Amino acid sequence: MTDFKGRSFLKLLDFTPEEIEALIDFAARLKAKKKAGIPHRLCEGKSVALVFEKTSTRTRCSFEVAAADLGIHPVYLDPKSSQIGKKESIADTARVLGRMFDGIEYRGYGQEIVEELARYAGVPVWNGLTNEFHPTQILADFLTVKEHFGSLKGRKLVYMGDARYNMGNSLMVGCAKMGLQFVACAPKSYFPDSALAEECRRIAAETGASICFEEDPKAAVNGADVIYTDVWVSMGEPENVWKQRIDDLTPYRVTADIMRAAGSGCRFMHCLPAFHDLKTETGAEIYKKFGIDCMEVTDEVFESPASIVFDEAENRMHTIKAVMAATLYGITE
Question: Catalytic site residue 200?
C-alpha cells in the first residue's frame, strides 16, 4: 500500500488512481468507525494550522471535527489573523508555521500559494480550496457516488454551468483519474481551460475515462448518473458580473425537466452553498435586482429525493479526516 505519510495534498493531478481510491476507501472505514462510536484518535498530540483567506462553513467545520476525532489540536487563522502574503511572505509564513505545527491547511486564492507553502513548510500542506483546484471536495463527491452507485468507473457525471474554475477543473481531473465519463455543459466561453482538458484527455486514455464539452443541456445529461452544479459567481468575484452570469447560464440551470431528461436513476450534487430559494440574504438580494427566485438549481430539484447534497456535505469531514490521518500517521486497514 502507498505510504502517504509526510506528503502534501495539493491537487489530484499529483496522485495515481490507486492512491485516490485508497484515500476514498480509508475515508469510508473512518466513517464506519465514527458511526459505530469506535474511537480513532490516530494522530494524538498533533497540532495543525488552518489558514483561511476565504471563509467557509463546510471546510472549516470538516477540518475541525475531523481533527478532534483524530486527537489533533487545530488552530484557526481567519483572514484577519494571518499576515500571509501581507506583512510576511508565503515562504516565511510556511517556515514559521512548519516549526510550530505538524500540518497546515490553506484555503484561499492562487494555487501557487498552496504550492509555495508546501515547498517551504517541511510538513504536510492540504489544499482546502484555491482558485484552480478543490481536491478535498472531489474526494467527498466520489465517496458519495460510491455510496449511492457502488462504483466510480464508467459512471457519467455532467457538470452544468461555469466550468472554468476550481470545481469544473477538479471534477474533470478526478473523473479522468478514476475512469468516469465527464461532461462539462456550458456555453463555449465557460468551458474548462484547454491545456488542462488536454492533460485530462491524456490521463483518460489510460484509465478508460472520457472528457467531453457540450452546449446543449438535454444532450449532455442523457444517461447521466450524476448532474453536478455550483454557484455561478465564485468567491471574491465582483458583484457586477452577476447579470452577465445570469443571462449566460440560466439555460444551464438544473431543473426538474433536466433531471427527467437524465433518467430516474440520476442523482443531483452540489458542493454548497446553493442559491435555490430566497431564504438567504444573497438570494433575496438577487431576487430584488433580477427577479429570479433561484439560480443554478431550482428548489424543486434541491429538495427532491434525487438530491444527495447533504450526504456529500457530511462526507467532506470523513474524507478530510482520511487525508489528515494518511499524511500525518499513515493509512491503516
Answer: no
250 burial level (CB within 10 Å; 0-12, 13-18, 19+): middle
pLDDT at 122: 98
Please report which helix (H) or strand (E) contains residue 257, including its range: helix 256-262
Judge whether 60 counts as a catalytic residue: no
The grid coordinates listed for 99 are 516549526
pLDDT band at 235 (very low <50, low <70, confident <90, very high): low
Tell me the one-letter amino acid at 167. Answer: M
Contact call for residues 23 and 174 (beta carbons, < 8 A): no
pLDDT at 1: 58
Q: What is the pLDDT of residues 252-285, one digit of tens each?
A: 999 999 999 999 999 999 999 999 999 999 899 9
Nearest to 135 by CA among 286, 310, 278, 322: 322
Catalytic: 266?
Answer: no
The CA-based dihedral angle spanning residues 128, 134, 135, 141, taken in that order and rounded to the nearest 10 degrees: 110
Q: How far apart are CA 109 and CA 18, in angstroms?
A: 29
Which of 69, 271, 276, 294 is an active site residue? Answer: 271
Specify whether 316 is catalytic: yes
Report yes or no on whether pTM surpasses 0.85.
yes
**Cell numbers at residue 155, please?**
459512471
327 and 121 Cβ atoms separated by less than 8 Å: no
**Sheet (strand 47-52) strand order:** 73-77, 47-52, 103-107, 125-129
The 10s digit of each residue's pLDDT in 156-191 is 999 999 999 999 999 999 999 999 999 999 999 999
- Residue 107 annotated among the catalytic residues of the structure: yes
